[in-house]
Amino acid sequence: MPESLPPLNALKAFEAAARLGSVTLAAQELSVTHGAVSRQIRALEAHFETSLFERAGRGLVLSRHGRQLQAGVSEAFTVLRASCRALSRDIEDAPFTLACPGSLLARWLIPRLDRLHRELPALRLNVLASDGEPDPGRNDISAALAFIAPPWPSDRQVIEIAAETIGAVAAPDIAARLTGRPVEALLEETILETASRPQAWPQWGQARGVEREALTRARQAGQSFEHLYYLLEAALAGLGVAIAPRLVIEGDLKSGRLVAPWGFVETDARLCLLLARGTPRHSGEALAAWLRHELTAPA
After folding, report:
1. Selection from 20, 29, 113 nearest residue 74 by Cα
2. 10 Å Cβ neighbour count for 13?
3. Please, which domain of life does this record's source organism belong to (predicted)?
């Protein structure tokens, strides 16, 4: 007789049939067919080379070996169910920690945090600022909110939220010199960019028909900042023309502190929620749905 454990599905079918005294009821509980439960029980009897049930009229009763197996299997499944329930409660009760780029956090998410907490109270959201994409090995982060382009990382569940749009923006004094002029007028100004998104200006320039080499020379003569936050502060201070995601500067555009003389273009990047391994998908979907609604809701 083999000493290895029989298949878990066979033990599960046996435990349900033994507890309920019916293959039909076991099949209903397990959401499988009557035949599937019967096959699992026969496989278990073949494994042990003994009968586990005996017929009693139209019902089933456990044989002596069946009663012996049931005692241990029932106890084991009781412990398993309790462990699974405890783990589920622990996961559901754990706070959802969201890592978010500092500029997006400060300029877009923080003004909406109070509403988010009110409308998704079960999420128990904590937010922290992140520079770049968080280390997927960190176990204190449930998800990261970031602009990323395909291919998606293989170590995360990725939920797309919205397309990224970027544009050339400047303080009103500079924008006044540019509005109504051809896009090449941009090259007369100081170009500002961030080291974290070197592809942003080329993407926007290609969409707007700016000659690539001329834009490259202008960028080389311009100024680069380590973080988007400093880039935007430089643009607000009137130091030049910056390239930025529309979402991050939405408030500055509405207030008139920044102006986009030639509008915005869509890139291949997407605003995505990247779930860490072990983060419940339904929690991420709930947050993603809320973010999508905020992005489309009227101001």
Report:
1. 20
2. 26
3. Bacteria
Which tokens hold the place of 179? 């509005």
Dihedral angle over CA of 181, 185, 189, 195, nearest 10: 110
State the pTM of this model: 0.67
In angstroms, the CA 219 to CA 202 distance is 10
> 215 is written with which tokens?
């834009």
Judged by DSSP in three states, 209 sits in coil
Closest CA to 122 of 159, 93, 144: 93
Q: Which domains does the chain carry?
A: 8-93 (1.10.10.10), 96-161+275-296 (3.40.190.10), 164-269 (3.40.190.10)
What does the alpha-carbon distance between residue 5 and residue 7 come to, in Å, rounded to a whole number?
7
Helix (H) or strand (E) holding 174: helix 172-178
DSSP letters, 129-187, are: EESSSPPTT-SS-SEEEEEE-SSPPTTSEEEEEEEEEEEEEB-HHHHHHHTTS-GGGGG
Cβ atoms of 271 and 145 closer than 8 Å:
yes
**Which of 23, 13, 21, 80 lies closest to 47, judged by CA?**
13
Q: What is the rounded distance in angstroms from the CA atom of residue 209 to the CA atom of residue 183?
A: 8
Angle between helices 8-20 and 64-93 (to 10 degrees): 110
Q: What share of the chain is helix, strand, coil (3-state, %, to 5)?
A: 50, 20, 25
**Rounded CA Rg of the chain:** 30
Q: Is residue 21 within 8 Å of 30, Cβ to Cβ?
A: no
Q: 234-243, pLDDT tens digit by residue?
A: 999 999 999 9
What are 54's strand-pairing partners? 61
Residues in a beta bridge with 12: none
In contact, 287 and 273? CB cutoff 8 Å: yes
pLDDT for 113-158, tens place per residue? 999 999 999 888 999 988 655 554 566 789 999 999 899 888 889 9
